[in-house]
Amino acid sequence: MTQVANAPDRYLEELERADAAWGRGAPAWLKRTRKDASGRFQSLGFPTTDDEEWRFTSVAPIAEATFALATDGRAALRSADLAPFRLTDLASAELVFVNGRYAADLSSVRPLPRGVRIESLASRLATNASEVEPFLTRVAPFERQPFTALNTALFGDGAFVHVAAKVALDAPIHVLFVSTADGRPTMTHPRVLVVAGESSQASIVESYVGPRGDRYFTNAVTEVVVSENASVDHYKLQRESLDAYHIGTMHLIGSRNARFQSHSVSFGGSLVRNDVIAVLDGEGIDCTLNGLYLGDGQRLVDNHTVIDHAKPHCGSREVYKGILADHARAVFNGKIIVRPDAQKTDAKQTNKALLLSEDAQINTKPQLEIFANDVKCTHGAAVGQMDDEAIFYLRARGLSHDEARNLLVHAFAGDVLNRMPLEALREHVEAVLLRQLPHATSLRTRP
């Protein structure tokens, strides 16, 4: 596979330009962090396939392209353009960002319970930076993560969600990031910070979308803090342009008796990498990571997850499923770490992939690193093709070949979809999947 240069000059130029533009007025601690992150990215450079964590995924298309920081694309975007991606009827608040910048006129915020703050990061940094200082850039370390370092150095805005102790949100918060190419390859570096206070409850939906055919690079970082006895359901819907590149990283820190669920859905993008790192830093934490992805054409979808059991009496469950057609490729690397003090850990991981063509492929690597002796940990991986007998059975009952195939694929995906607690969101994702399935399966050669 292709290797890439450590730190192409064009990215260094953007780092210098951003430092000059965003350094003014920023709090001192953020200036220092940005400078450190910029230096770290220049030192690390882009990962190559010599790096174990990237051995199956070449980022040469990103490193070798001439991406520039996106300008304000709000003028070219109509409200009607966002209609297929909105969750207005479902969400208590919908924050819209266009090319990484908050668009107040496209956003919608209903009256929220007292103790809930939802606004752009740029706004919160300008008015009360001390509130985000303990968390922003602290939860997601960048010392060994080049894309996180690049985001930390270049992010200009993002979403800030803070739910105070003992406050429960009865409807989810939707954060919608829209990217446009502006006639040239562009990049954005969105940032999301979610802080859930003790015994609070919230659901967060992150969506990443872009116009069909646009070529751009999204490099997103999400930081989630789940305090003691708090509960957070997090959903990530990735529906980028099929010519776009998406690198997304989410870091979570959970405290005693916290509950966290992550539901990741990837239906777009030419090259997609999703990293989820969950640190269970308290006893009695319950963590769930679920994922569903669809790939066709020449697309690549790479999911890397880490669940770090740092304290005893914690449980984790993980189910990732992929559907691949044409020459699409996928990577799944799921790591469960059990620290020496994390006795009574109960962890289970499952990864399955359905290949709809002989040319589709997946590299899967489940990992267990166990340093305690009183634990229950299992993992499993399965890769297979469509069951011809099942297709024959359905066709014998009047279904066409495509209808039978789509029904079986939908049933395969249903195991993940049915784990989504929000029924309305689950139906929304199912509708998107059903719209994309005919294209993904119609290109297959019928037997």
Structural overview:
Helices cover 23% and strands 37% of the residues. Strands 1, 5, 6, 8, 9, 11, 13, 15, 17, 19 and 21 form an eleven-stranded mixed β-sheet that branches. Strands 2, 3, 4, 7, 10, 12, 14, 16, 18, 20 and 22 form an eleven-stranded mixed β-sheet that branches. It has helices at 9-22, 28-44, 60-63, 121-132, 146-154, 388-395, 401-417, 423-442, and strands at 68-69, 93-98, 101-102, 108-109, 116-120, 158-163, 173-178, 186-188, 191-196, 201-209, 216-226, 231-239, 245-254, 259-266, 271-280, 286-295, 300-309, 315-324, 329-338, 346-355, 361-370, 376-385. Helix 2 (28-44) packs antiparallel against helix 5 (146-154), helix 6 (388-395) crosses helix 7 (401-417) and helix 7 (401-417) packs antiparallel against helix 8. It has a domain at 9-281.
